[in-house]
Specification:
single chain, 517 residues, alpha/beta, Aldehyde Dehydrogenase, Chain A, domain 1, Aldehyde Dehydrogenase, Chain A, domain 2, 2 domains, seven-stranded mixed sheet, five-stranded parallel sheet, globular, binds 2-aminohexanedioic acid
Length: 517
């Protein structure tokens, strides 16, 4: 069975990425080290072991944070465009190694090879963005109320930035944070997911090589490996100025509270419960393509995955029949084989959650239209392959209110005006992504207005997933409120300083106050 690793080029990818199978998961540039507990990485593709990684102990962490802290004091002196030049070279390496890194992402995490490549492409795109940004970290100038005074704002780096990322986007989310944080002048410490440790090591190695060649101080790019306890080393540490965390709402609440206790900054990108509203004015063919990709792509494990369809009663049966037909055509299996549409879930815990969710929706009175199942037999030996399911449900069901990280799609009927659908869409605690399928301008504008979608992302005539890096990414309510990647998300990685300069021979006070000595 290790055959898959050989047949699909995983072994070659590890070689090209210079990642050993028995390795260590701590680095601040140069050697990998670490004497914490060992973590085995098993692929959900075939259940085979990919490698073993020694995690980060608290004394290992101490070495990393003190190097990062010291590196920052040098790195902040580099002109931002020079920092951008290093990111440009890092990006050259990503372009060169895209097939191998995409392959490793696909095998260790279980997403399709196409999606693995797409994820590396997001890294490349954000690095391009960051290079341009390195010449555009603009502040404003304001008119002072005092004569002979100039007032302006400037942006300075924060210091050490901690990045905690999840298994489902094991490389892209790190780069959204670090590429931007680096050009802003910060040192970054990354805790990747303990479910995808070799992928993190591959990225750290690429960055370390490029940084070393450019004389970047060691510690600007650092890696730590382990579970939530290792993450806590950063969230409790006042030397980590910003903690950017992606993952579940439960995890985000713990991170936010710990960081807030020391009045540190956090940037949270947490769960979604994303819906597509389908009105009688929708283009049904496109709707079905967008909905199916949104629901089953990455096996329903994107934070932007489509979980709910809110369908007008006039087109409900038409959409329902088209979806059931489309689901019959889905091929589930080895994600490295490009004939398959749906790969495995990440692990057996996730399979359990999927199974329980299906039981719950039935118990709450839902009607399962496309039955789910855990697949067994040849090609499914890992026990992580499941059948994408569809259930008719009500928005208020407890299970519909939750984010189940798997391919379960709930169909919810609405009648009357679009506002009734928007109410249902907004009627969950999460607020990440949303979409409307309609060719009617009035409906579209209503959906996008202040009375419309309450989510961080609101799309018209495309699905809920697949956001581009150029926009700010994140959501409202229990999604955490953070924004990463494009637009002006860079401001979260810097501190704003307002400066007023007096070039007169007097010292007039603001607000007309007189204070003569
Ligand atoms: C995530 O699932 O955490 O918009 C990120 C998308 C991808 C990123 C998802 N560009 O679906």
């Amino acid at each position: 069975m290790a055959q898959i690793q050989e047949k699909y080029g995983v072994n070659k990818a590890l070689e090209a990425l210079k990642v050993d199978r028995d390795t260590k998961g701590t680095s601040f540039g140069g050697e990998l080290f670490g004497n914490g507990a060992k973590i085995d990485s098993f692929s959900p593709v075939d259940g085979e072991k990919l490698g073993t990684v020694a995690s980060t102990s608290s004394s290992d962490y101490e070495k990393v944070i003190s190097s990062a802290d010291a590196a920052f004091t040098e790195w902040r002196k580099w002109p931002a465009p020079q920092r951008g030049e290093v990111v440009r070279q890092f990006n050259d390496e990503l372009r060169r190694l895209k097939p191998e890194l995409g392959k490793l992402v696909s095998y260790e995490m279980g997403k399709s090879y196409q999606e693995g490549l797409g994820e590396v492409q997001e890294m490349i795109d954000i690095c391009d963005f960051a290079v341009g940004l390195s010449r555009q970290l603009h502040g404003l100038t304001m008119h002072s109320e005092r004569p002979g005074h100039r007032m302006y704002e400037q942006w300075h780096p924060l210091g050490v930035v901690g990045v905690i990322s999840a298994f489902n986007f094991p490389v892209a989310v790190w780069s959204w944070n670090t590429a931007i944080a680096w050009v802003c002048g910060n040192a970054c410490i990354w805790k990747g997911s303990e479910k995808t440790p070799l992928t993190s090591i591959a990225c750290q190695k690429i960055a370390s090589r490029v940084f070393e060649k450019n004389g970047v101080p060691r510690g600007v790019s650092s890696l730590i490996t382990g579970d939530a306890k290792v993450g806590e080393l950063m969230t409790t540490d006042h030397r980590v100025k910003l903690v950017s965390a992606t993952g579940s709402i439960r995890m985000g609440k713990a991170v936010a509270q710990t960081v807030a206790k020391r009045l540190g900054k956090s940037l949270l990108e947490l769960g979604g419960n994303n819906a597509i509203i389908i009105t009688p004015n929708a283009d049904i063919k496109n709707t079905v393509i967008g909905a199916v990709f949104g629901a089953v792509g990455t096996c329903g494990q994107r934070c932007t995955s489509t979980r709910r369809l809110i369908i007008h009663e006039e087109v409900y049966d038409q959409v329902k029949d088209a979806l059931v037909d489309a689901y019959k055509q889905l091929r589930i299996g080895n994600p490295l084989d490009e004939n398959n549409h749906v790969g495995p879930l990440i692990d057996k815990d996730s399979v359990d959650n999927y199974r329980k969710a299906l039981e719950k929706v039935k118990a709450e009175g839902g009607n399962v239209l496309v039955e789910g199942d855990v697949l067994t037999g040849e090609g499914y030996e890992s026990g992580c392959y499941v059948k994408p399911a569809i259930a008719e449900a009500e928005n208020h069901f407890d299970i519909v209110q939750e984010e189940t990280f798997g391919p379960i799609l709930y169909l919810i009927k609405y009648s009357g005006e679009i506002q009734n659908a928007i109410e249902k869409q907004n009627g969950v605690v999460q607020g990440l992504s949303s979409a409307l399928m309609s060719t009617n301008l009035r409906e579209a504008e209503q959906f996008l207005s202040a009375e419309g979608s309450d989510c961080g992302i609101a799309n018209v005539n495309i699905g809920t997933s697949g956001a581009e890096i150029g926009g700010a990414f994140g959501g409202e309510k229990e999604t955490g409120g953070g924004r990463e990647s494009g637009s002006d998300a860079w401001k979260a990685y810097m501190r704003r300083q307002t400066t007023t300069i007096n070039y007169t021979k007097e010292i007039p006070l603001a607000q007309g106050i007189k204070f003569d000595l």
